[in-house]
Amino acid sequence: MNAPAQIDLDQTTNNPTPSDLDIIVRDERFNRESTPKRWWAGDAFGTAWHNALSATFPRGEAFFIEAVKAHREGTPPKLAAEIRAFVKQEINHTREHIAFNRLAADSGYDIEAIDQRVKEMLELTKGRPAIANLAVTMALEHYTAMMAHEFLANPAHFENADPEVRDMWRWHAVEEVEHKGVAYDTWNHATKDWSGWKAWRVRSLVMLTVTGRFFKNRWTDSINLLAQDGITGWKARWGLLKYLTVTPGVVRRIFPAWLSYFKPNFHPWDHDDRELIKLYEGEFSDALMPAE
Known about the structure:
By secondary structure, this protein is mainly α. 64% of the residues lie in helices and 1% in strands. The chain contains eleven helices and two strands, in the order H-E-H-H-H-H-H-H-H-H-H-H-E. The longest helix has 33 residues, at 196-228. Keywords: Hydrolase. It holds the Pfam family Metal_hydrol.
């Protein structure tokens, strides 16, 4: 009964953020012109899922920025620099998803309800301890990193998508992989006086809560967007489930990475996937800007 309290969980990790990692800000712009309505290979299910994700990003990434910035005091110089670069990357992501969402709306999709619900959910975080917001940010950053890895490692996800939209998601994915350890390292700094057991328990419980809400809300949003495309009932539910778990099956494919989050000494850089960044960094080299 009392065994868990006796477990000594060290907060240190064997594979922290690589010392030679540089977080680079790539100031790209996309989707300023017309984009096909069903941009994901003409498929309504992939389009709905990614449109639902994108609709949450402007407010969500602003939340991430503030959650990390709230704990930057006293951070080591390297982490402080990474936080500054993280903020600049996320600001650019927000700008580009605002432009993308505007095109989705111009194509006839009503995504205002998604944005409004995100706004209402974020209102509930006001007055909450700042460390709670950081724990949520850390969990959601793990989601973005998992999906980013999958999108870059398996080009089939966007192989037949509209080229400019595909480039935006790849650009976003590169930077999500690159800064995947920032929120986690900030958490380790902010909770350095906690016991390993407490830090592990809190981040694990928060991940479970975030996971339930993430899939419930994205599923609801996607089903609503599919209804706007005239796809309802079992056809909508089966088609979306097949997209997420069979082909291309992004949820099925990220499950092992999700499970790894619950390891006592987990760190996002336990898996060094910087080779994925190198595959695409040349495409964005003309848009590099100083991170400082």
